[in-house]
Amino acid sequence: MDSRELNEQSFVRACIDNDIETARLLIRRVDINRKDKSDVQRTHLHDACLRNSLEFVKFLCQHGANEFLADQKGRTALHYASSMGSTDIVEYLIKRNTHKMSIKRSQLKFTSQQRTTVSRSGKTYQLQVGGDRVLAQTRYGESHVISYPFSFNERDYEEDSIIEVETNDYVNCVDKENRTPLHYACGEGHLSTVQIILENGGSLYDCDEGGRNCLIYACREGHVNVAEFLIETYDCDINLVSDIGWCCLHYSCAKGYSSIVSLLLSQPSCKIDVVNDAQNTPLYYAIRSCNEDIVKQLLNFDSKIELTEKDWHDLNWLCKYWPVSIQQNLLLRFDYYLDCILCYVRLRTKITSQNTIRSLLENLLIPST
């Protein structure tokens, strides 16, 4: 083993042991941005974020660590810190990459009057900045568009007014699946980290490559405190659907998260019978997750029992094994779909008598006394 490799190993050990003094002695003898030899290809900075060591994060950044370097999956240090809920590290990395600039009012043009972030405490607008300077790099290529959270009224500024603007193209960096640090923080349920990211320009509306936004991540993993914060504070769209047609309600019903379902159903805008690409509603997934409480909630909000073939299979299972109370609730709604059920049974059995089929269904739904 050569001396450089030995220094690298000693430096890694010093970082793991939080031995800052030894790390200082070795810092000039190692490649500060070297990636490890594993399939993940993490840097020293990534590891410091995983260990929640703000001291080492600052130390590494001050000695040339590149915050933008990504691992094999495209995750930066900010992704790692966000997934760990290391709020102090997240704030440090964001502030470190926030830059102030002064521009004239005449240089600004609104690209859209539509707000990109809605908050009760402020608004975020997209601004077009004239000139040749590239202020941001997006997945669509170079762009002159910057996002900055502030309250702005055009009438308050003359054409030659100077406006102080902060830019940050790091807070919304994406991995190879187009997930931002906010996706990671919401998916892991780190509310304080979510708040810090949003306060510093994090975008609520960026979606991953599957079309899922940060609220879907929170609902899919059952983090009701994060979901409630996003909905109540930022009016986050609860009905946004992914590329396969799943909304927040689909995910929470499939996972059996009753508290998330209650939160979503309490919103006046909630659509309870959204049909996904598989032609299934949230009720179907609630039945499959075997969660009586969620099924009752959906039925109380008049969710429709759509009986596709798959639905019938699971409804059959539901009626056979669940308590009489919910069987009765379903039976009250059955007449509307009876023709569909009769047709289904005739196609898959040798029974042709409608009365016989009806009798079988009633015996299934109402156990004999």
Task: Give structural notes.
- The chain is α+β, with helices and mostly antiparallel strands and 369 residues long.
- The chain has a domain at 99-167.
- It has 18 helices and eight strands.
- Strand 5 and strand 6 form a beta hairpin.
- Helix 12 packs parallel to helix 14.
- It is globular and about 85 Å long.
- Residues 110-152, 307-314 and 365-369 have low confidence and may be disordered.
**Count of DSSP-assigned helices:** 18
Distance between the termini: 81 Å
Q: Shape from CA axes?
A: globular
Mean pLDDT level: 76
Biggest sheet descriptor = 4 strands, antiparallel
Calculate Rg over CA atoms: 27 Å
Please count the beta strands (DSSP E, at least 2 residues each).
Answer: 8
Model regions low in confidence, pLDDT < 50 over at least 5 residues: 110-152, 307-314, 365-369
Q: Give me the strand/helix succession.
A: HHHHHHEEEEEEEEHHHHHHHHHHHH
The percent of residues in helical segments reads 40-55%
Structural class: alpha+beta
Bin the strand percentage: 5-15%
